[in-house]
Every structure is written in structure tokens, then in C-alpha cells.
Design brief:
92% helix; mainly alpha
């Protein structure tokens, strides 16, 4: 007896479960990234308030305009360094979250792909004579979809790496410009 409806039902259920697992994983990774971002922003805000208070006290304690401008100028380099550190941490959080997204998606795609191939193999065992052409077409379509996904994954990874490289280059340029300006 050909149990295709039952196999299809089981495959559909497994597919929904895999999609739910992927969405759960991606949601979890999103919240982890947001937690890191919020923690970074809170830490940065606290440090900025403390630094502003200290600088304000120093400026108010200045005895003459020369000392006032000297104190003000002395803050340029530390502020630039803090902005650079913040940018690096922000880029790191974005890169880590993106990598986790890719890892979770690739893992789930591999599982779904394995299940689809298993279903096709099981169905083809019970396929009626003369359906070899259709079975071959289905296997080719699955193979082409896998190749397309692999190419997309490679392109996305290259784009992420290029973005990280560009952010690091921009931070380096900002660092050297800030160092030159402070000197």
C-alpha cells in the first residue's frame, strides 16, 4: 500500500517543527544581541555622565580662560578613544549576532534538507513504475535549491566579512584622525 499522504503529513509536521525551532533560535539570538546592546549603551551612558560631571567640575574650578580652554582641549583625545571603543564594541555585537543568525539558519536548513531528502527517498521506493522521470526531476530541483542556498550563504558570509572589514577600516581611520587632531 502506498502511504504517501501519511508520509507527506509527517514531513509537513516535521517541517513546521523545524521552522518553529529556527524562529525560536533566531528570536533567542535577537534578544541576546539586544541585551548586549542595551548593556553597552547603559555602561556607556553611565561613563559619559561620570566623565561629564568630572569635566564640568574641572571647568568650573578653572581660575582663568587659559586653564578653562586647556581642560577643554585635554578631553578631546579621551573622548575620541571612548567613541572608538564604543564603535568597536557595537561592531563586535553586530558581527556576533549576525554570525549566530547564520549558524542557526544553516543548522535548521541542513535539518530540513535532510528530512526532505529522506522523504523523497522513501516516496521513490514506493513510486509506481514509469515515474522515474518525475522522481529525477524532483531530486534535481532539490539539488538545485541546495546549490542556490549554498551560494546565497557564501555570498551573505562574504558580505558580512566585507562589512566587518569596512567597519574596522573606518574605525582605524577615525582613530588616526582623532590622534592627529589631539596632537
Amino acid at each position: 500500500m502506498f502511504a504517501f499522504p501519511e508520509q507527506f503529513s509527517n514531513a509537513t509536521k516535521a517541517n513546521f517543527e523545524s521552522q518553529f525551532a529556527m524562529l525560536t533560535a533566531l528570536t533567542s539570538k535577537s534578544f541576546e544581541g539586544m541585551e548586549k546592546l542595551v548593556a553597552l549603551n547603559i555602561t556607556t551612558a553611565k561613563a559619559a555622565i561620570e566623565d561629564s560631571s568630572a569635566t564640568a567640575r574641572q571647568l568650573l574650578a578653572a581660575k582663568d580662560p587659559q586653564e578653562f580652554f586647556s581642560v577643554s582641549a585635554s578631553q578631546t583625545q579621551p573622548n575620541a578613544e571612548k567613541a572608538i571603543a564604543y564603535s568597536r564594541q557595537l561592531a563586535s555585537i553586530a558581527a556576533d549576532t549576525s554570525a549566530e543568525f547564520s549558524k542557526a539558519a544553516e543548522s535548521q536548513f541542513a535539518e530540513v534538507n535532510r528530512k526532505v531528502i529522506s522523504l523523497v527517498d522513501e516516496v521513490t521506493k514506493n513510486a509506481p513504475a514509469g515515474s522515474e522521470t518525475y522522481v529525477s526531476a524532483i531530486k534535481t530541483a532539490i539539488s538545485n535549491a541546495n546549490a542556490g542556498y549554498e551560494q546565497f550563504s557564501k555570498t551573505a558570509k562574504q558580505a558580512r566579512e566585507a562589512m566587518e572589514t569596512n567597519v574596522n577600516a573606518a574605525v582605524s581611520q577615525f582613530t588616526s584622525a582623532a590622534s592627529k587632531a589631539a596632537a
